[in-house]
Specification:
The protein has about 110 residues and is of the alpha+beta class. It is built from 2 helices and 5 strands, in the order αβββαββ. It has a 5-stranded antiparallel β-sheet.
Length: about 110
């Protein structure tokens, strides 16, 4: 009986360790407002103001919230494509605007040099 109890305790400890490791891994994968040092490129899905700890301006890009400066918050609209390079936010493409990318097949082919 005591051997079975010992196995149960070992199994529960192993399960607790595994759960802790999984929580740490998933916590690193989920972006948060505090970790805005990574590059962000995507479409603005929502924008709102948080006022719990002062006024914070938030945009949601790819289901992740990001704090942005007030002038950028005023300028950006839901549906705009934005980029953050770790230092500044910019609007890459306005909602409804055609892309500025030129398809490769439309580029002129290089002429042979003499």
């Amino acid at each position: 009986m005591e051997g079975v109890r010992h196995l149960e305790v070992v199994a529960l400890k192993a399960l607790a360790v595994l759960a802790s490791v999984l929580l740490v891994v998933f916590a690193d994968l989920i972006p948060s407002c505090e970790s805005q040092s990574r590059v962000v490129l995507g479409w603005v899905e929502d924008k709102y103001i948080e006022s719990e700890a002062g006024t914070l301006y938030v945009i949601v890009v790819d289901r992740a919230p990001y704090y942005v400066p007030y002038p950028f918050y005023q300028d950006v609209k839901v549906g705009d494509k934005v980029r953050y390079d770790g230092r500044k936010w910019e609007i890459v493409q306005r909602r409804g605007e055609p892309s500025r990318l030129v398809p490769i097949e439309l580029l002129p082919s290089p002429s042979p040099s003499p």
